[in-house]
Specification:
Number of strands of chain B: 0
Largest interface: A-B, 50 and 42 residues
Order of helices and strands of chain B: HHHHHHHHHHH
Radius of gyration of chain A: 19 Å
Number of helices of chain B: 11
Oligomer: heterodimer
Largest sheet of chain B: none
Order of helices and strands of chain A: EHEEHEEHHHEHEHEEH
CATH superfamily of one domain in chain A: P-loop containing nucleotide triphosphate hydrolases
Number of helices of chain A: 8
């Protein structure tokens, strides 16, 4: 067995319950090992697992049980308060994908900017630019300011860019809920192609059919704990049993 | 387990195989520089593409300011401070002040304005401060010709002190980045700081030797004024035209203070980083 590409060891992260909670300087600089304070809760705690290259993992759980937080930890856009997150390869995060786009710049500038921020060189982007535009089906709008695109187009171009990043790990967080049916199917095909190309996939969804389609392994999160780490069908059965949902 | 395509497979396929060149292979430093440059470029492009006057705004602002002070202090009041020609004396400190002031003012919104982008990419977080220092620095460099033009018009003699210019830019970069790294995360937790800092900056404008020189202060104050790192900094910039302004004691303190601010800024930034990421 080769070394894992993702390894989480006893990871915990806590958030404040009320945004307007009191903050003081002492609080801010206190060591991160300190016990949980009132008004704070652990969004995830004692989460440990490893992922091998090429695995496709579905993350299952009810709303607010830490699924998105887990993805953000793996991406590295939030940092754990406890434990270690070790990701050896690059990550293409399909989380808040439109975040990097600037309203006032044209689609072309935006593609170069976002892909560049995710680590692509100018030459790499040049060679994939037409592909990206084709995929998003917005060839007529290349020089339109981003803010004038429809919301569907915005998501399409964003997905096209991030899914072209050529990173070995792909994280998908329910972004595909938007967009019309035809485009969603196109995105799914794209994800399947990437999987076939040996990518590692992390997939958060409430859609059982999608989970079964892509994933082989499941992680079931409940109340901030990793309850079950097993093949996807087992995880879904358990999830449905716990929350009394009849299997579709 | 999915099988990986053979390495020799032709790559005309829409999806390239796993073994192909990947962006991660660049060194962290090269990535940092690349991202920093991209964001700086974006800043400048957005600013210049959405306004008609574009580049001239970065000149117009200090020019109008200098014009006002020149009028007030040479035409209205009898001026007893500074050197002649006063407009050159003024601009030599006002232009770097614009850089400092602009960068720190922008740093108060460094995280809040880019929250969406910070939540979706994992580039090193110090970039959000450093890119502001850089883009304001570039605007400063772009406005240096204004100083040159006025020096030529008023016949201010250029001295060898001009070679201290790069040193001054280096010190200012360190100082501005240090204070920026200190301010940016704290504003996320204490929103009031945004306004407080605007006030402090306005105070600092008059507390720093911009419309006057450190040597114009009462003797008792001169020693303490040296602890304002901007004092030594501006005297370095002014040395290009007014070598008598150069006081190495003040410059030395300024260098020390700048390094101190950088160390403090890096420390505060590192300690608050994970809290900032949760908050935005």
């Amino acid at each position: 067995m080769t070394a894992p590409v993702i390894a989480l060891t006893d990871v915990g992260i806590r958030f404040r319950r009320n945004r307007r909670g009191r903050r003081n300087f002492k609080d801010l600089f206190a060591g991160r090992k300190r016990r949980s304070r009132p008004g704070e809760f652990w969004a995830l705690r004692h989460v440990s697992f490893t992922v091998q290259r090429g695995e496709a993992i579905g993350v299952v759980g009810r709303n607010g049980q830490g699924k998105s937080t887990l993805l953000k930890l793996v991406t590295g856009v939030v940092l754990a308060d406890e434990g270690t997150v070790h990701v050896v390869e690059g990550v293409a995060p399909l989380i808040e994908i439109t975040g990097g786009f600037v309203d006032d710049l044209s689609v072309r500038d935006n593609v170069y900017l976002t892909a560049g921020l995710h680590g692509m060189t100018r030459k790499q982007i040049d060679s994939r630019f037409d592909d990206i535009i084709d995929f998003a089906e917005i060839a007529d709008f290349i020089d339109t300011p981003y803010k004038h695109l429809s919301s569907g187009m915005k998501v399409r171009i964003a997905f096209a860019v991030i899914s072209r990043l050529e990173e070995p790990i792909l994280l998908v967080d329910e972004v595909l809920a938007v967009g019309d049916k035809a485009f969603r199917e196109k995105c799914y095909q794209r994800i399947e192609e990437l999987l076939a190309g040996g990518r590692t996939l992390f997939f958060v969804s409430h859609n059982e059919r999608d989970l079964r389609r892509f994933c082989t392994r499941g992680l079931y999160l409940d109340k901030g704990d990793l309850v079950l780490d097993a093949p996807i069908s087992e995880v879904l059965t358990r999830y449905n049993a716990d929350y009394g949902i009849k299997p579709a | 387990m999915r099988s990986e395509p053979a390495l020799s497979a032709p790559t005309i396929d829409r999806v390239s195989s796993y073994a192909e060149v990947r962006p991660e292979q660049r060194t962290p430093f090269a990535r940092y520089r690349h991202s920093l440059w991209l964001l700086t470029q974006r800043d400048l492009r957005v600013r210049y593409s959405t306004s008609v006057l574009g580049y001239f705004w970065s000149i117009l602002d200090p020019l109008v300011m200098a014009g006002i002070y020149w009028f007030v202090f040479t035409q209205v009041f009898e001026r007893t401070v500074g050197n002649d020609p006063y407009i050159v004396f003024l601009l030599a400190a006002l232009l770097p002040w614009m850089w400092f002031n602009g960068a720190i003012a922008d740093c108060t919104r460094a995280f809040l304005r880019e929250a969406k982008l910070i939540r979706s990419t994992r580039i090193p977080r110090t970039i959000w401060v450093n890119r502001l220092v850089l883009s304001k620095g570039i605007e400063f460099l772009a406005s240096v010709p204004v100083l040159v033009i006025f020096a030529v018009i008023y016949g201010a003699p250029l001295t060898t002190g001009v070679f201290l210019f790069p040193l001054a830019i280096l010190i200012q970069t360190v100082l501005t980045a240090g204070i920026g790294l200190l301010v940016a995360p704290l504003v996320v937790f204490f929103r009031d700081l945004e306004r407080a800092i605007k006030l402090v900056l306005r105070f600092l404008f008059y507390a720093s030797p911009i419309i006057y020189a450190t040597s114009d202060l009462p003797a008792g104050l001169q020693f303490w004024a040296a602890f304002n790192p901007l004092s030594g900094l501006f005297s370095l910039y002014r040395a290009a035209f007014f070598p008598e302004q150069l006081d190495w004691f003040v410059v030395g303190i300024s260098v020390l203070m700048s390094l101190l601010f950088l160390a403090l800024g890096l420390f505060v930034f590192a300690r608050t980083e994970r809290a900032v990421l949760k908050e935005i």
